[in-house]
Amino acid sequence: MDQSLISNLKNFTILYIEDEAGIRKNITEILKDLFKETYVAKNAKEGYRLYEENKPDLIITDIKMPNENGIELIKRIRKVDSKVRVVITSAHTDLEYMLEATELHLVKYIIKPLTEAKLIEALEAFIKSFDNARVYTLQEGWLFDESKSLIQSFDEEFKLTKKENQFLKLLIQKNRIITYEEMENIIWNEDIMTPNAMRLFIKNFRKKLPNNVLKNVQGTGYRIVL
User: Fold this and answer.
1) Whole-angstrom Cα distance, residue 54 to residue 187?
2) What band does 2 get if pLDDT is binned at 50, 70 and 90?
3) Which residues face 136 on adjacent strands?
4) What are 175-207's pLDDT values in tens digits?
5) How many Cβ atoms from other residues are within 10 Å of residue 67's Cβ?
6) What is the DSSP code string of 34-66?
7) Which runs of E-coded beta strand occur in the chain?
8) Contact 18, 89 (CB under 8 A)
């Protein structure tokens, strides 16, 4: 188990859908310890309602459930949401089910029984699925989502301004000192970067970052320490 990956789960919410009470209870206990919020449903109808109300980051659903099965449910969700990550659990190794499921852009297809080891493997795959989605780890438990202009810690969210988002992206991607001149040319662009404007910008920006991540290099600029 990669502890640094798993600790990032505290930034995310999950919806777990399972009709078997015993399995639902056991897995829910594990998920509640790992995620910021855990929503639990015993069938697809309840699952869809909770999805609409809470827009979770991850859905784990069983396939075989009364009335509507898990694949039908995810197909319905996929019509309105291409981003939510999905893990499907199933007692079926049926090729037809698996082929249908692959069209739903899953993080994982788990063959039951859903052991803790299989669950952790799926959750690690969920975190890694953000690697190419412009989501960066600033520190353990701190994520920067460039596409949403958002920094998330274990218990807080910080919305970034356009300049803050650009600056943080630049610091991470260049991984070196960003000079005052670069800041003026790239971040301020056509605006005038007065010393007061920059001081205020940095002061507000630091409030949204983990401690000691942004370093000032005297007379030169700023760099980030990850």
Assistant:
1) 35
2) low
3) 144
4) 899 999 999 888 887 788 899 999 999 999 999
5) 10
6) HSSEEEEESSHHHHHHHHHHH--SEEEEES--S
7) 13-17, 37-41, 58-62, 85-90, 108-111, 135-139, 142-145, 150-152, 157-159, 178-179, 214-217, 221-224
8) yes
